[in-house]
Amino acid sequence: MKNTVTSMAKALFVMALFSAPVAATPIFTFDEPGNSFTNGSWDFALNFEVLNQVTVTGLGYFADPTTGAVDDNAVALYDSNQNLLASVIVTNTYDVFDFFRYVTISELILGPGIYQVVGVSNSDNYTWNNVNHIFDSNIAYVSNSWAVDTDGVANYIAGSQTDSLFGFSGPNVFIGDSRDFTNPNAVPAPATLAIFGLGLLGLVARNRKQK
């Protein structure tokens, strides 16, 4: 029994050491905003396709670098049947991470399919035609949607527009390992497998000392 437990612990520990960490990244990034403009409160939506299963760990909203501020922006994530999957209110409590402020949500697995993330601008500045706008390899851009905001709620927007490349940047989605979004330099949470393996090794070592 002792040899079996020892072998299991060593195997798990080796797997943890050599397994690649899950990438922690927004579904899209850019080097710098292309514009900084506002003309009222809008609902901005991004329709995207998940190509390979991803785990959503945060929802965020654009924080214009000229001010760095957000204004209690509502952000929501929907599936293609307009079912609400998650929603948050983004405030200035959260530090800026690549031009966005994010709020942590309970891990949400998205399988391949079409989804929409929508956010309310609350008259904050928004941007479009951003420099080096790139989507994660597991995500494909589908279209963008927008509508005049009337209630401050991030409602699903039917239809789509193609009036700018990748649409107007408001909401964003964070995928991969969870982060502490009050500290943008925080390291993603360690793998559960590594913790379990180290725990087993510790138990084996303690049993040996007792014997």
Short description:
The protein has helices spanning 2-18, 192-210; strands at residues 25-26, 28-29, 42-50, 54-62, 73-79, 84-90, 96-97, 100-110, 113-120, 134-135, 139-148, 171-175. With 211 residues, it is of the alpha+beta class. The chain has two domains: 1-19 and 191-211; 22-189, Sandwich (Jelly Rolls), CATH 2.60.120.
Topology:
Layout: H1 2-18, E1 25-26, E2 28-29, E3 42-50, E4 54-62, E5 73-79, E6 84-90, E7 96-97, E8 100-110, E9 113-120, E10 134-135, E11 139-148, E12 171-175, H2 192-210
Antiparallel strand pairs: 1-12, 2-10, 3-9, 3-11, 4-8, 4-12, 5-6, 5-9, 7-8
Helix pairs in contact: 1-2
Write structural notes for this entry:
- It is a single chain.
- The protein has two helices and twelve strands, in the order H-E-E-E-E-E-E-E-E-E-E-E-E-H.
- With 211 residues, it is α+β, with helices and mostly antiparallel strands.
- The protein has two domains: 1-19 and 191-211; 22-189, Sandwich (Jelly Rolls).
- Strands 1-12-4-8-7 form a five-stranded antiparallel beta sheet, with no helix packed on it.
- The protein is globular.
- Residues 186-209 form the Ice-binding protein C-terminal domain.
- Keywords: Membrane, Signal, Transmembrane, Transmembrane helix.
Key traits:
211 residues; 2 domains; Jelly Rolls; 5-stranded antiparallel sheet; single chain; alpha+beta; 17% helix
At CATH's second level, what is the architecture of the largest domain?
Sandwich
Class computed from helices, strands and strand pairing = alpha+beta
Query: How many runs of DSSP E, i.e. beta strands?
Result: 12
What is Rg?
21 Å
How many DSSP H or I helices?
2
Main beta sheet strand tally, sense and closure: 5 strands, antiparallel
How are the strands ordered across the major sheet? 1-12-4-8-7
Question: What sequence of helices (H) and strands (E) makes up the elements?
Answer: HEEEEEEEEEEEEH
Question: What name does the CATH topology of the largest domain carry?
Answer: Jelly Rolls
